[in-house]
């Protein structure tokens, strides 16, 4: 793999973005981190004590002084275009991140996720430096089609009751003919633009349809980032609300493993697919109830739990089939969930 000379990270103060910034700064790339620092304004349930952007902005500034920090908005195309020029890769993680926020303010959700991604791709297309682009997409692009797959109920979890999906959801699952929520639609729109630009050869680009990504420097809340939200609430002995019955299952991926997948594409993007389902895969799954058990074993604490109705757009089981990433990017998850949670707890207690 080649070392990238100059990398732009949109959403560079976000959880995933800050890890991309760190990854490339550690490898000697010239890194620009772009962020509008709006997280607590756009997420209803986010508070200043869990302000991911503010924490990570300071973290980058203190630990990686050579990183150029730019406060800007991907909806401002002229400014974005001037920033993109000169970079040979873009990690596009800036976005509106919550289904709940998209239901109350779908216009902002569309402008940030769909139009913002279009702006990134157009700026990349027009740049003389010809940057490759990876885009943080989501499993929500499959919408309610995921819930059409038969599942069986076990003691503490649901699981697929169809042998075709024993390794998880492949990229070929239909995106059509179902409810998505505004968030799912805006991310799918961005995803389709990525595919179009890639197929026409306008930009070397790929959309990574992410499952649950977790890790250090993540301040989750009720709207987004549930792994961190559950862990922090447990560590602070704050009550938690489970929407549904707690048996819903996700595959979980440590954030540094995700960044390695991004880099595997950006370092050698030619003749590679433009869409990847990325997550921990069938080997790294947990239900909410099982995760509470893990947290109790790590912390000695089990916080108070209450239950509420299932939320719109939720899925009983979502697990990524990561075989395409393994085949084309020579990638696989390296950090187990137990190890990743230990790292998270250690970071939170010692930050």
UniProtKB/TrEMBL annotation:
Gene3D superfamilies: NAD(P)-binding Rossmann-like Domain (3.40.50.720). Pfam families: Epimerase. Residues 7-279 form the NAD-dependent epimerase/dehydratase domain. It comes from the Archaea. InterPro entries: Epimerase_deHydtase (IPR001509), NAD(P)-bd_dom_sf (IPR036291). Belongs to the NAD(P)-dependent epimerase/dehydratase family. This is Nucleoside-diphosphate-sugar epimerase.
